[in-house]
């Protein structure tokens, strides 16, 4: 009986067909389909077309790549489930891809895109960016500030729409993607409660597993928790340990030279540093850079005199993993006894909190 059941299960694996039609893809280009774990399969482009026929035993996200490198606009992300997925576009870049087919993922994806395209709250999203570009070119700082405020509001409306879609589709694999990529960073301590809404296949994806890890880290790095010691090299290659700052208030500031919001926040951090550095306070900058020259250049340009450390592996460094850093700027205020006492302090709020803690 067990052998018969196993044979039936094996023969019932999901058959997935992925068709591609991109006229400008170079003849002989190798297309790869990969999960987060490893390369799954590859095919060659012929006459601008390619085709994958696969058995997929589990629900998870996959990346289609033109060549092995995950270069922006040379790859796209989707889920594979039983049925046919048709991808088409001009190529050679895999952006603005049109998707069709009868698989559950395709139907969910088209429903999500339709809702985003027709939601009245998002009707002027594209126009706002056009206005922002124009105001920026005209150096109209007042207009830029006003438009950026409207864009931030529209982003909040967009995220609200995404949450509504998830609430209506708790078992869709696409829901785990939307939550993991677009919303999880904004949930804060509510992440675990939000994840509890997801059901079935939505809880089997790598993105869901990653959110589980994020929820675990949130518990371990909550306000009141002691931060484990770590060591990472500074700009001169010398090891710096968090424990070397024991007895001081320390702002762990995660940033990068390429991060516009980080660079915009640096003057506020500098102001706080200058105000409180003689009151048992300092900053430890932890860079998500992978280019040493750009990292050092940004430190000099933004006049940051505090200790700066990085292993130049971007988000793969061990300290970033310890804090589950997936977006920057992010910061943590550490007390003299090594406990987290505040998170993500921005602008005037940083000064306000420091004044409250540092007497």
- How large is the radius of gyration? 24 Å
Strand content: 15-25%
Q: Any idea what the shape is? A: globular
Question: What is the succession of H and E elements?
Answer: HEEEEEEEEHHHHHHEEEHEHEHEEH
| CATH level-1 class of the largest domain | Alpha Beta
Percent range for helical residues? 40-55%
The unreliable regions are 1-12
How many structurally independent domains? 3
Tally of separate helices:
11
Structure description:
By secondary structure, the chain is of the alpha+beta class. It has three domains: 2-99, Immunoglobulin-like; 116-220, no CATH class; 231-357, Glutaredoxin (3-Layer(aba) Sandwich). Helix content is 40%, strand content 22%. It is built from eleven helices and 15 strands. The protein has helices at residues 2-11, 104-118, 125-137, 141-168, 173-187, 191-195, 206-220, 260-276, 292-301, 318-322, 347-357, and strands spanning 14-21, 30-34, 39-44, 49-56, 61-66, 75-79, 83-88, 98-101, 231-233, 239-241, 249-255, 281-287, 307-309, 330-334, 340-343. The strands form four sheets. A five-stranded mixed beta sheet has the order 13-12-11-14-15, covered by helices on one side. Strands 4-1-7-8 form a four-stranded mixed beta sheet, covered by helices on one side. Strands 3-2-5-6 form a four-stranded antiparallel beta sheet. It starts with a helix and ends with a helix. The model is unreliable at 1-12 (pLDDT under 50).
